[in-house]
Amino acid sequence: MSKKPSPKSENDLMEKIVSLAKRRGFVFPSSEIYGGINSIYDFGPLGVELKNNIKREWWKTMVQLRADVVGLDSGILMHPKIWEASGHVAGFSDPLVDCKSCKKRFRADHLLEGKGMKPDFRPQDFKKAKVRCPECDGELTEVRDFNLMFKTFMGALENEASEIYLRPETAQGIYVNFQNVLNASRQSVPFGIAQIGKAFRNEITPGNFIFRTREFEQMEMQFFVNPKEVDKWFDYWQKERLNWYRSLGLNKENLKSREHQSRELAHYAKKAADVEYAFPFGQSELEGVHNRGDFDLSRHQKYSGKDLTYFNAETKEKFIPYVIETSGGVERSLLAFLVDAYTEVDPRSGDEESKHEKEVILKLDKRLAPIKAAILPLSKKLEKEARQIYLDLQASFMCQFDASGAIGRRYRRQDEIGTPFCLTFDFESLNDKKITVRDRDTMKQERVAIGELKDYLREQLGQ
Ligand code: ATP
After folding, report:
1. Can you tell me the distance from the alpha carbon of 182 to that of 166, in angstroms, rounded to the nearest whole number?
2. Which sign, positive or negative, has the C-alpha torsion 352, 355, 357, 358?
3. Quick check: 394 and 413 in contact, CB under 8 A?
């Protein structure tokens, strides 16, 4: 993660996002009434909608609209041998140092980065750089490797034989099901398997709100290819994934693809490129696209003793497929979508209370917006008729009904949570059976026949 300031870092944007997220029910700190638990977050009523919409869009792009990718939902707990085969028991660790004075713990590679050195870590660089504690300038311990996997026990006995891990990535569940999916789905190479699910990493230095947490969700796809075609597919997926974020409205200027240097590569990777986003705290990884070669399937073949080679009946070729992986985090993309959508404007809603301050609009893509339409009766006297419209629309869209407070205030509330359409039912509506539809971004107001509302919204929302 580079420390280069992003275009949005000129203000306290992160603080504003964290505060909005809590106040309006996107993200809550976990276990708050017990004093909280470090870097675990819960998603509130709007957060869970936004998360589901992100996952739905990913699934649609990666599975539904493709003939060559199928889905999977594998267990979080798996045979412990899987993590030996995958290299995670031996190699899934971060270099760690402790301060001898204040006892704070740091990632050695992050400290080097802070000194302007490359993020590809070597312990000898650390010694040479004579780094001291960034908090108290105390002396640091030698670099130690710290395994990031959470351990637990399965069954009644707590001994070494019953030790298992919470998965640190969803990918391995895909590799160990490669043959099952191949046999069951009538796919042939090249094809992919996609999965969305929780992953757990005992990160040493979590932080930046939901950017790095110890429990998170991944959206991963493993694409199995003929080794001869691996470069072509790597380029293809690198572009596809960058485009996905763009297509959902992330500002092009804030997105870029960065290829890894060879020393940065993870133990399984031959080549890697990150999709990065200019967060207020710096340009950072949103998603990784990796050429994992035949590392995973070969290792599982060796450790399980099962043949995982692929036979192409047409060309008579036999090989262990290479894998291109696309691996993104749900929470990281949610944070990027929030940051990118957050917009402050001069007062425009007509809310008396906000007359002298800026108003906030979350300009989320309509497909991602948690609430698609808010139904607002102009007067308490119109509540009954307006509620009927709400009940009709509810079957097709996530809607809110809000009858309390001045209309300007209600507009402002909906703008702040990114609702694309406010539907205002007024006295005229009783006669002409029309409702005023206000567009969040353009502020354009249109009278739409109540009988045509569903089709109108469907079209506007691209459903
Ligand atoms: P980093 O370098 O930021 O630790 P990584 O390179 O270890 O990430 P991968 O193992 O490639 O990440 O994981 C793929 C994706 O999973 C990341 O791009 C990110 O979106 C998400 N992810 C990984 N670790 C975390 C975490 N601790 N919290 C939230 N999301 C995460």
Report:
1. 26
2. positive
3. no
421 in Cβ contact with 438 (< 8 Å): yes
Inter-CA distances, 450 with 22, 371, 382, 385, Å = 35, 19, 15, 11
DSSP annotation of 206 reads: -
Q: What is the CATH number of domain 8-77+152-338?
A: 3.30.930.10
Confidence band (pLDDT; 50, 70, 90) for 11?
low
Return d(Cα 446, Cα 435) in angstroms, integer.
8
Cβ(307)–Cβ(301) below 8 Å: yes
CATH match of 350-461 with 3.40.640.10: no
Query: Closest ligand 1 atom to the C-alpha of 218?
Result: 16
- Ligand 1 atom nearest to CA at 285: 18
User: What six digits make up the tokens of 399?
Assistant: 């809607």
Find the residues whose C-beta lies inside 6 A of ligand 1. Answer: 201, 203, 212-213, 216, 218, 285-288, 327-329, 331-332
- The residue to which tokens 């909608």 are assigned: 49
Collapsing DSSP to helix, strand or coil, 415 comes out as helix
Test site for ligand 1: of 109, 120, 220, 285, most ligand atoms within 8 A of the Cβ: 285
User: 162-203 pLDDT, tens per residue?
Assistant: 899 999 999 999 999 999 999 999 899 999 999 999 999 999
pTM of the prediction? 0.91
SS3 at position 28: strand
Q: Where are the chain's structural domains?
A: 8-77+152-338, 97-147, 350-461
Query: CA 343 → CA 17, 48, 226, 262, 286, distances in Å?
Result: 11, 21, 46, 39, 21
Local structure of residue 154 (DSSP, 8 states): -
pLDDT in tens, 275-319: 999 999 999 999 999 999 999 999 999 999 999 999 999 999 999
